[in-house]
């Protein structure tokens, strides 16, 4: 039995072509395991909820970053563009 029946039901109703999990908490909820955003961001994750599942930085993490905000923002933007490119 799934630990995330509400999430799975909502995703099934939408039948998305891609899911972008913003942050580790969202990624864990979607893929069902811990995800290290700094190591796995932007890479397709193994998940049967959508053909493409990607995790990236949560926008609030980017805003809180002091030393590397511009780099994180560029990586978040690149991840979103890559998913958009995959869908077009």
> What is the topology, as strand order, of the major beta sheet?
1-2
How much strand? 5-15%
N/C terminus separation = 35 Å
Report on the biggest sheet: 2 strands, parallel
* Low-pLDDT regions: none
| Nearest-integer average pLDDT | 95
Query: What pattern of helices and strands is seen along the backbone?
Result: HEHHEHH
- Proportion in helices: 40-55%
Radius of gyration: 13 Å
**Coarse structural class:** mainly alpha
Number of strands: 2
DSSP helical segment count? 5
Please state the overall shape, judged from the principal axes of the Cα atoms: globular
Question: Descriptors for this entry?
Answer:
mainly alpha, two-stranded parallel sheet, 53% helix
Folded structure, characterized:
Helix content is 53%, strand content 11%. It contains five helices and two strands. It has a two-stranded parallel sheet with strand order 1-2. The longest helix is centred in the last third of the chain and has 19 residues.
What layout of secondary structure does this protein have?
Blueprint: H1 5-14, E1 18-22, H2 24-31, H3 37-40, E2 52-56, H4 59-64, H5 69-87
Parallel strand pairs: 1-2
Short description:
By secondary structure, this protein is mostly helical. It is built from five helices and two strands.
